[in-house]
Design goal:
Rossmann fold, alpha/beta, four-stranded parallel β-sheet, globular, binds S-adenosylmethionine
């Protein structure tokens, strides 16, 4: 029987956990620092899409007061993420949710920050996924620094 991507990711959860812990581990603190430096977001609500084993949310929680929703389509990944979050000191600020980026279960303008690492390429319809992301992301005017960096029109 033909398997869809979610099934494949489900089967690979244990293997990905090993890779995340043995190879990717040093990347998550660096990534968290970069996210904070780039966005300046240190409080409010954050969504990590395709959280995998939940290591990025843990590093974000260590460095900020953010409440992080850690969302993944794979039940198996969510179980591993839950375990990692419980073992960390941040179970009060990280909520693991099973869900699909194409059908985000949040109201509009809910999040101050949305992040994702290594998941984008697995999404079935990236345009639909980004529409969902934009809907649940709170719009704030770009800072003068963002305008310069990303060449935003002055009316943005
Ligand atoms: C390569 S792993 C990256 C995990 C994690 N972000 C990291 O950096 O360690 C990709 C993750 O995206 C998840 N994923 C794939 N398609 C998804 C979708 N449509 N919605 C939510 N998560 C998805 C997979 O289950 C998997 O955990």
């Amino acid at each position: 029987m033909k398997k869809n991507l979610a099934d494949c990711m489900e089967m690979d959860a244990k293997e990905f956990e090993k890779t995340a812990e043995e190879i990717f581990a040093p990347m998550y603190p660096v990534l968290a620092e970069q996210i904070i430096e780039e966005t300046g977001k240190i409080e409010g609500l954050c969504l990590d899409i395709g959280t995998g084993t939940g290591l990025l949310p843990i590093e974000l929680a260590k460095r900020t007061k953010l409440v992080v929703y850690a969302l993944d389509i794979s039940e198996e990944m969510c179980k591993i993420a839950c375990r990692n979050v419980l073992l960390s000191k941040f179970s009060g600020r990280i909520i693991v949710i099973k869900g699909d980026v194409h059908f985000l279960p949040f109201r509009d303008n809910f999040f101050d920050l949305v992040v994702s690492r290594g998941s984008f390429l697995f999404w079935r319809n990236q345009i639909e996924a980004f529409k969902e992301i934009y809907s649940c992301l709170l719009y704030t005017s770009p800072s003068p620094r963002d305008r310069t960096r990303y060449r935003m029109p002055s009316s943005a």
